Amino acid sequence: MHRLGFVVRSRSHRFRLERLVAGRSPGRGALLPPPAHLSLRDSRTLNLALDPPEPVGRARLVLSRGGVRHEVPLAVERLASGGGRLLTATVTLRGPGAEPGASGLRLADGVWRLTVVTTGPEGRVRRRGLALAPEVPQPATPTLRYAPDSRTGALLRLVRCRGGRAALQVTRPLPHAELVRFAPRGDGGTVHGRLVAAPPEGWRAEAVRRRDGVVVPAQVTWRGSEFSLDLPLGGMTGAGAGQWVWDFRLVRDDRDDRPDRPDRPLRGRATARGPRVAARRELPLARRLTDVRDPATAFPAPFRVYALPCGSLVRAHAHFTKSGAFAVTCLELTEGR
Q: From CA 189, how far away is CA 314, in angstroms rounded?
């Protein structure tokens, strides 16, 4: 967990530096006014519509980061009323983790500059950035403005750099266990999920009781990166009397890959003898690849009574927390147990 926090902090620092670089302007007049429309939907579709700054014969949108450039032609569309024109583009984007054969522009983790390149009728070429108006605070809505890609977990969003220049920030996903659906049965329930940005080998599942951290192992079945986890309701109620809330996670013990100590779990930081990784990795089970602001309200679930194979009756409430974590509240109803 400490390593994960370090990665998040270092990445945030790098993004701030990249936004400073991307916001540099070559001089006055280098930014076009905010476009009539600029949006990014589901971290996959970029839509742009802007008024031509002057008569143009050809125009294109350039996405650049370092030495990598992607060019998108801008089409000229006539407005139905007034006879005006707009330069428009709709382009599919793919962030880190996309399948090799997926269509669209593939963007690496980082900040990408948006530049409009126009060629006038006389052949003059001009390159200018797009200005992005400051965000105006809006009332909270049920959905978030920017949502991660539902398949890869990559998050793409528009950002305003130094000087007001628009840029595209691409954030690769951190490893996590994504809940896809929960299937209740009369004698229990099964959680279906998949790993995001993590290898599927070596993971086991646990139910962890809040407050005191009691752990109950859970049976998990794998199909590549997808998994099915059976709720261990018998073990959860058998761990102690009363009603408790349980969280779920996938756990893996990493091993030392150095030739002199191949089977020793690693603890601590890197040394001169070789790299060290965390001895224990934990991935909480949650629903994060969604645009829902409050999963606890958006995905309500009723209390259910389950008849376990051992003969016990258990009342359980499978639900999401406000942050999207999956949890189960359970209580044994059978008397004398």
A: 12
> What span, in angstroms and rounded, lies between the C-alpha atoms of 134 and 166?
10
State how far the Cα of 24 lies from the Cα of 65, in Å rounded to an integer: 13
* Single-letter amino acid, residue 326: F
Q: Coil, helix or strand for 125?
A: strand
Helices (H), strands (E): how many in the chain?
Answer: 3, 23
Closest CA to 282 of 256, 258, 254: 254
Q: What are the φ and ψ backbone dihedral angles of 141, each rounded to 5 degrees? A: -115, 165
Residue 63 near residue 107, CB atoms below 8 Å:
yes
Tens digits of per-residue pLDDT, 42-76?
999 999 999 999 999 999 999 999 999 999 999 99
Cα atoms in the 13 Å half-sphere on the side-chain side of 292:
19
Please give the residue that has the higher pLDDT: either 278 or 40.
40
Task: State the Cα angle at 98 between 92 and 202, rounded to 5°.
Answer: 160
For the chain, the distance separating the N- and C-terminal CA atoms, rounded to the nearest angstrom, is: 38
Look at residues 336, 304, 320, 296 and name the one whose alpha carbon lies nearest to residue 188: 304
In this predicted model, what pLDDT tens digit does every residue of 156-190 receive, in sequence order? Answer: 999 999 889 999 999 999 999 999 999 999 999 99
Cα distance between residue 316 and residue 244, in whole Å: 10
- Predicted local confidence at residue 28, as pLDDT: 54
Element (H, E) at 14: helix 2-22
* Distance between CA atoms of residues 34 and 45, nearest Å: 19
Max CA-CA distance within the chain? 91
Of 239, 204, 112, the C-alpha closest to 167 is: 112
- Give CA torsion, residues 24, 26, 30, 35, to 10 deg: -20
What SS3 class is residue 318?
strand
Token duo for residue 195: 């790993």
Q: Is 324 helix (H, G, I), strand (E, B) or coil?
A: coil
